[in-house]
Amino acid sequence: MTVTVSDATRATQVLSRPVTLNGLTVPNRIAMAPMTRMFSPGGVPGADVASYYARRAAAGVGLIVTEGTYVGHESAGQSDRVPRFHGEDQLAGWAKVVADVHAAGGTIVPQLWHIGMVRNHGEAPYPDAPPMGPSGIRVDGTEGAGHAMTQPDLDAVIAAFADAAAAAQRLGFDGVELHGAHGYLLDQFLWSRTNRRTDAYGGDAVARTRFVAEIVRAVRAVVSPEFPVILRYSQWKQEAYDARLAQTPQELEAILAPLVAAGVDAFHASTRRYWLPEFDGSDLNLAGWTKKLTGKPVITVGSVGLDGDFLHAFRGQGAELGSIDNLLERMERDEFDMVAIGRALLQDPEWASKVLAGRFDELKPYDAAALKTLS
Ligand SMILES: Cc1cc2nc3c(=O)[nH]c(=O)nc-3n(C[C@H](O)[C@H](O)[C@H](O)COP(=O)(O)O)c2cc1C
After folding, report:
1. NADH:flavin oxidoreductase/NADH oxidase N-terminal domain: which residues (predicted)?
2. Which of 52, 53, 70, 184 is catalytic?
3. Are 201 and 215 in contact (CB under 8 A)?
4. What CATH code is carried by the domain that includes residue 267?
5. Do the strands 24-26 and 19-21 form a parallel or antiparallel pair, or are they unpaired?
6. 280 CB burial (10 A radius; 0-12, 13-18, 19+)
């Protein structure tokens, strides 16, 4: 099946436009979604990791959001193969990643991460560090597997995020993304199931934003005013796909407003399928609602370029729900500003350049074997 010229031109026109996130101009609308790869032994991203990102930047990805990288707090993570964002060797590894991505013409932000109560006892890199979260409750509701964070714990984690953001700017990164999604620490504070605190960090939906807002403020205070601070958040959680922080647009607005006031420059609204409406009565997705309610630039994500329908539609077979036509229509309406691509970019490092040039026939269908290598 051949692609019509108008399909190709339309994709090029819509996706090739630059976009501004605070002081950063991203050359086009395509971002690489953050994806944990576990190819960084000792928490050090090596030359292979730098090439992996640079390859995608050279092939048209406008903004790379790195895999989640642990902030400098002992309980932040539980794998010695996930890159860390503290320590001399680790930061030297990141400096090479930044240099290679910039040399390839791309922009890049690290995704700063603390996993909170997802952590198990006895795991690397700090086996003695305890799991901790807002109330010591796991995402599945289990109690007793860790402890409720004390004020010194909260202060230490806030400082760890600020230190990491300062390091990111020092190393030449173009901004930072805070991982506030998917049931990890920041999201554990936002969610009523995992946050049962009775102090100022718990209570209603607005009170539950306090910890995240304090992190955003602390980050803002150590980076320059034009340095973009992106917050990724989601309704869904690992192990709880149907979870929701907000049942209505009004509830969502109540959660987002204090985060904007704290200094978030852009949101990355994580959904598993970008075409699904978030609330009844409108076909806006979570990113669309986030933009409408905050006025900030927003990145959407979720199964772009993965299924057969998308490829069919690329090949001129009509507008299916998850098709390129649907995506482009939403971007033409300014429902959201950027689209992040995850698995399709693992499969095909040249996904962005092919799409930007309308070479849709060359796209490769996704195969989970792509998860196993860093090619
Ligand atoms: C292997 C893998 C690792 C992931 N790691 C992260 C991560 O570190 N941080 C994060 O916010 N999301 C992570 N995600 C979620 C992706 O960023 C993205 O939201 C999800 O894959 C949906 O996009 P896609 O359908 O284009 O793949 C990961 C996804 C995959 C497949």
Report:
1. 17-361
2. 184
3. no
4. 3.20.20.70
5. antiparallel
6. exposed
Number of helices followed by number of strands (H, E) in the chain: 12, 12
The burial of 316, by beta-carbon neighbours within 10 Å (0-12 exposed, 13-18 middle, 19 or more buried), is given as: middle
Q: What is the structure's pLDDT at 368?
A: 87
Find, among 21, 35, 359, the residue nearest to 182 by Cα: 35
Helix (H, G, I), strand (E, B) or coil at 237: strand
Q: Is 184 a catalytic residue?
A: yes
Res. 317: pLDDT tops 50: no
* Residue 148 φ then ψ, to 5°: -75, 130
pLDDT at position 311, please? 54
Ligand 1 pocket residue status of 35, Cβ below 6 Å: yes
Q: pLDDT tens for residues 266-289?
A: 999 999 999 999 999 999 999 999
Residue-range definition of the domain harbouring residue 129: 5-372
- Whose Cα sits closest to atom 10 in ligand 1? 34
Provide the domain count of the chain.
1
Q: Are 109 and 62 in contact (CB under 8 A)?
A: no
In this predicted model, what pLDDT tens digit does every residue of 239-263 receive, in sequence order? Answer: 889 999 999 999 999 999 999 999 9
Q: What is the pLDDT of residues 357-375, one digit of tens each?
A: 988 888 888 888 999 999 9
Q: How would you classify residue 140: left for phi > 0, otherwise alpha for psi between -120 and 50, otherwise beta?
A: alpha
Return the best residue to mutate from 35, 236, 304 for the ligand 1 pocket (most ligand atoms within 8 A of CB): 35
Q: Where are the alpha helices (DSSP H) in 36-150?
A: 47-58, 88-103
Establish whether residue 304 lines the binding site of ligand 1, counting it when its CB lies within 6 angstroms of any ligand atom.
yes
Taking alpha carbons only, the member of 285, 290, 301 closest to residue 340 is: 301
CA of 34 to the centre of ligand 1 (A): 6
For ligand 1, whether the C-beta of 36 sits within 6 Å is yes
C-alpha 231 – ligand 1 centre gap (Å)? 15
